[in-house]
Design brief:
Radius of gyration: 27 Å
Oligomer: single chain
Helix content: 55-70%
Strand content: 5-15%
Number of helices: 24
Structural class: alpha/beta
Largest sheet: 6 strands, mixed
Distance between the termini: 84 Å
Shape: elongated
Strand order of the largest sheet: 1-3-2-4-5-7
Number of strands: 10
């Protein structure tokens, strides 16, 4: 075929079919536009699944056809994988590291060093399981987040050749063997308690399914035809540069997020730069590397990637290289971005004493484990967790102990469990039940402070960006209605359901003998507060405020509703933090020289303390 735009095509171990590169082109373009416009191209992430299937198809084809020709050798297979993958990975990791060294704060560079290591050693997917969800906003601030999929592929390549080799040597039926294997791998996600997005065992079935497709095609002598649409020069071009483009584009997008630059505004520039860098890597690095047959060359690449990983480990262990001479001193602010641990020993002991078993709540903390003390209880979601330090400090001052009971993205409204699916929702319901068992126990609880996000649950989207809580975060009313929602998704009014469960909470606690305080949501920033700090060389914009009208417009329906029902339930005390954060024009991330936020919507320690002091008279001085 004609070379697409005069780009040379590397030698393949199999007969070249441009249709496959065209399919790759569609996959990478899907992923690219999804990462640039997640709110518009909501299913572009499926391009990664397509890559998995295609990779499984091709790798099985390579292995099996060579076995048939008596020309398969393990060392040759792994040499080819190294020269195919390592050059682009090394270049992108080094670029990511250099930019990070020059512009990231120590805490950011420390985290990047961790990710450099896990990406270079191909276990980034396991690292991310314990760090961030793929859909969370924090994911945008991890330049190597996308290496999760590459890690899974490389792990797959370790054992798959051996499995195909055994099947071939034992003369087992290839189709039957791969059907059994595929069903087994697919079933693991239902029998093992694993992360269904990042964990390798939840993803290997996609690659093995590609292998099964090859086995069927091979059995019936089917060759993927040269399709004129998939073989067109544009798609083939993107298919040829798909691997470096996959590596480059997210690094660039993430750094734009980190540096406070508007990704949507600069999307065309991001696309052009990503394509240009990908072409350079493909044209002058990949093609050269894939022509090299020397095992010494492959060994050098292996050692180079090992060194890159060890550099990342060094950076992590040395706290992000605090002594870089060009760093701006932001130490007083950087401390505010460290989130406190989710649980402490006193809280866990106290809850176990009350319940008689260990609770599955995400956040459990207390200043005491003594059942005979008087307590204020802070309940809610992750906002309760970041509000706890300030209220706990003042509680001790006023003669109370403090107890935190909260869940991540599962605000404990009575009868208001939420989840993206039935499994999540049922877990949330159990967590909420534990909280109310404690609130209704014999523990001497004097005050309850209810703290959650709200607008994200009401609207389904985070401020100025797609959030990790889509419309699927559905309040639980009753089982039959819930199942109707998850099967048909009809006749569901998210806003009405959410406001109903808030009013139900007010109705219940209006009759309680416990003082109940409902804390309205603080302003969402819509930007990372780290961008309030000056970065090295001062070439990126800093922003530390949002317009008051934007905050009020965002929360208009919610605040109006709370104001309305608070008049119906006079025993509920509503705490409004607006005047803590905002003046007549703006709402600020920094006040009186102190950082109020740890991220775009959660309090820092300083913010937690300032919030508690702001409400001290209303909460602690009234009887």
């Amino acid at each position: 075929m004609n070379k697409p735009f005069n780009i040379p095509i590397v030698n393949h171990s199999l007969k070249y079919n441009p249709t496959l590169d065209g399919i790759r082109g569609i996959a990478i373009l899907s992923v690219l536009v999804f990462h640039l416009y997640p709110g518009i191209f909501r299913y572009g992430y499926l391009g990664v699944d397509l890559f998995f299937v295609l990779s499984g198809y091709l790798i099985t084809r390579i292995i099996y056809t060579k076995l048939e020709k008596k020309s398969f050798f393990f060392k040759e297979f792994y040499r080819n994988r190294i020269r195919r993958i390592f050059p682009a990975v090394i270049i992108v990791l080094l670029f990511t590291l250099i930019i990070g060294y020059l512009f990231l704060f120590p805490s950011e560079l420390k985290n990047l060093g961790h990710h450099i290591k896990s990406s270079a050693f191909f276990y980034q997917n396991f690292r991310l399981i314990n760090e961030v969800g793929y859909w969370d906003k924090a994911a945008q601030l991890k330049p190597l987040l996308h290496f999760w999929s590459l890690s899974i592929e490389e792990q797959f390549y370790i054992f798959w050749p051996l499995l195909i080799f055994i099947i071939y040597k034992l003369r087992l039926n290839l189709i039957v063997s791969l059907i059994v294997l595929n069903i087994t791998l697919f079933s693991l996600r239902y029998f093992l308690d694993i992360d269904l997005f990042y964990h390798s065992l939840a993803r290997f079935w996609e690659l093995s399914f590609g292998g099964l497709l090859f086995a069927i095609a091979y059995k019936y002598n089917y060759e993927i035809p040269r399709n004129s649409f998939f073989s067109n020069k544009i798609l083939v071009f993107f298919g040829l540069i798909s691997f470096p483009l996959y590596l480059w584009h997210y690094v660039i997008i993430s750094y734009f997020h980190i540096f406070g630059l508007n990704v949507a505004k600069y999307s065309f520039l991001i696309i052009i730069v990503s394509i240009f860098l990908s072409y350079i890597v493909y044209r002058y690095i990949e093609i050269y590397a894939r022509k090299q047959t020397s095992y010494i060359f492959a060994s050098i690449l292996f050692i180079m990637l090992l060194i890159v990983g060890l550099i990342g480990d060094y950076i992590y262990k040395h706290n992000g290289l605090l002594n870089r001479s060009f760093l701006v001193d932001n130490k007083k602010f950087e401390k505010q971005f460290i989130r406190e641990k989710a649980k402490n020993k006193k809280g866990v002991i106290l809850v176990e004493k009350i319940l008689g078993y260990s609770s599955n709540n995400d956040y459990i903390k207390s200043t005491s484990s003594d059942l005979n003390k008087s307590y204020i209880v802070i309940v809610g979601d992750s906002h309760a967790h970041t509000s706890y330090p300030g209220f706990a400090k003042l509680a001790k001052k006023h003669g109370y102990e403090a107890l935190l009971l909260a869940n991540s993205s599962c605000p404990p409204y009575i009868g208001g469990a939420m989840g993206k699916n039935l499994k999540d929702l049922k877990q949330c319901k159990r967590k909420i039940n534990n909280i109310y068992k404690i609130l209704n126990s014999d523990l001497n609880i004097k005050k309850i402070i209810f703290v959650t996000r709200a607008t994200v649950y009401l609207k389904g989207l985070g401020y100025k960006t797609v959030d990790g809580s889509p419309k699927g975060a559905i309040p639980y009313k009753n089982r039959s209605k819930l199942e109707t929602y998850f099967t048909s998704k009809r006749n569901w009014n998210q806003e009405k359901e959410f406001l109903d469960i808030i009013e139900n909470e007010f109705k219940v606690y209006n009759k309680s003998n416990k003082r109940f305080y409902y804390l309205l949501e603080n302003p969402e920033l819509g930007f990372d507060p780290k961008n309030c700090m000056e970065r090295p060389f001062n070439i990126f914009p800093t922003t530390c405020k949002i317009k008051l009208k934007d905050f009020l417009n965002r929360q208009k329906e919610y605040r109006s509703f709370i104001n309305k029902i608070s008049k119906k339930y006079p025993n509920i005390i509503v705490l409004d933090p607006k005047n803590l954060y905002c003046d007549n024009n703006y709402c600020y991330a920094i006040k009186n020289g102190k950082m109020l936020y740890a991220d775009d919507d959660h309090h820092s320690i300083n913010g937690s303390i300032m919030q508690a002091k702001f409400f001290e008279k209303k909460v602690f001085n009234e009887q």
